[in-house]
Amino acid sequence: KQTLLPLLRAEVSAFVFPCHLALQRPELKCMVVELLKCIPLLLFLIFVCGLDYFIFSVLSIIQNHSFVQYSYQTRHHVSVNVMGASLMAQLLRSTIGALNTSVDTQMETSNIACLPKPHGMSREQYLTTCLPLLTLALLCLAQVYPFRLRRVIATFYFPK
């Protein structure tokens, strides 16, 4: 026969009409398989975004509740009194008298430099992270139409 049409009822479900915009049964099966391949990537992306939010929450709690400030004050006073009027007492007073010191120390410190400073991801950053996967899913849905074009090109070169 010169033409393939009209098709039998059993043949209509297996034939792909290139001019119809709707998805057809043979194409739908291929598209679903491609979309199923995107599920592990989607689960990994959800896991990574959840882990990011969890780590941000933990670091934020640590930053808000772990601030410690220390105040340290000391006073040291060393005084050596040498009694007597002899030459040895005068010598000791002149040498040991240099050791008489008085030191007051006051120090305040905190752990603010050691605390984490977490920054959460913004909505734009989450969208930028999810955009490649959304593009991949849309391309899986749209791959049907280039495949139809492939069949039209093949029928042009190989009409039989």
Strand order of the largest sheet: 1-2
The description of the largest β-sheet is: 2 strands, antiparallel
Supply the helix-strand structural class. alpha+beta
N-end to C-end Cα span:
11 Å
Percent helix range? 55-70%
What's the number of extended β-strand segments? 2
Q: Give the H and E element order.
A: HHEHEHH
Note poorly predicted spans.
Answer: none
How much beta, percentage-wise?
Answer: 5-15%
SSE layout:
Blueprint: H1 9-12, H2 25-65, E1 69-78, H3 87-96, E2 101-110, H4 123-142, H5 144-157
Antiparallel strand pairs: 1-2
How would you portray this structure in words?
The chain has 160 residues and is α+β, with helices and mostly antiparallel strands. The protein has a domain at 26-56 and 121-159. Helix content is 56%, strand content 12%. It contains 5 helices and 2 strands, in the order H-H-E-H-E-H-H. It has helices at residues 9-12, 25-65, 87-96, 123-142, 144-157, and strands spanning 69-78, 101-110. It has a two-stranded antiparallel sheet. Helix 2 packs antiparallel against helix 4. The radius of gyration is 42 Å and the shape is rod-shaped. It starts with 8 loop residues before the first helix and ends with a helix. 0% of the residues are buried. The mean pLDDT is 86.
Would you summarize the structure shown here?
The protein has 160 residues and is α+β, with helices and mostly antiparallel strands. It contains five helices and two strands; from the N terminus they run H-H-E-H-E-H-H.
